[in-house]
Specification:
By secondary structure, the chain is of the alpha+beta class. It has a domain at 28-62. Helix content is 28%, strand content 21%. The longest helix is centred in the N-terminal third of the chain and has 24 residues, at 2-25.
């Protein structure tokens, strides 16, 4: 009876640790919006006279200090939508 209980307890602990580790390794993305950059084309012979571009910085946060021996997974299938209002 003790052997069955110890095997069951060991399996529950192993599964719990695996779930916690895999949850830590998931990508944690943070989006930073930088200041827009304006460019003036009035002196050039082009149809566009002014342009504004926006820079985005997407960061995958680092793991906590106690788990630096692991690597965080990359966000390979991430996507986003840009809308203009």
């Amino acid at each position: 009876m003790v052997t069955v209980l110890s095997v069951l307890l060991g399996a529950i602990i192993a599964i719990s640790i695996t779930i916690i580790i895999e949850n830590l390794r998931k990508p944690r993305l943070k989006l930073h919006i930088k200041a827009p950059k304006d460019k003036d084309y009035t002196r050039l012979d082009r149809p566009v006279k002014k342009m504004r571009s926006l820079c985005l910085d997407l960061e995958n946060k680092a793991l906590p200090w106690w788990s630096l021996w692991m690597s965080r997974n990359a966000a390979t299938q991430a996507y986003g939508t840009i809308t203009f209002h």
